[in-house]
Structures are given as C-alpha cells and as structure tokens.
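Before relying on records like the one below, remember that each one covers exactly one chain. Contacts with other chains, cofactors or solvent are not represented anywhere in the record.
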Amino acid sequence: MLVAMGCGEYAIDFKLNVWDIAPLKIIVEEAGGQFSNTQGEPTIYSGNIISSNKILHPTVLEYIKGCE
C-alpha cells in the first residue's frame, strides 16, 4: 500500500495468499505503479510479488532474479 500511496518506491512480499494479493494488484496498477511476481509475470497466483513505480520495477526484478 505504501507504493500505491507514493510513500515507497518498491515492495517485495513473499508467501502471500491470493486473497491478500488480488486487491493490491488493482490498487498499485490504478495508482500508476507496476505489479508482478518475482518472475516478472503479472499474476496473483504465485504468492511472491513485487510492486513498484514503473521506473524501478525492471531493476528490482533483475536483482531478485539474480538472487534466486
């Protein structure tokens, strides 16, 4: 929610349930942010998510993929 409010640049969350993720995806995207799982797919079913402003999303995603 901090990303959607503009108080954070990105957030990474792991092991979430689909009912926790679904509203977040809509809110972040409507606020102009970007949402994906840690593989870069725009899905709510993986349990692991990255939400960010559109500028930092590729950088955060690249870093996460390098750590796996």
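Residues 33 and 53 are 4 Å apart (CA to CA).
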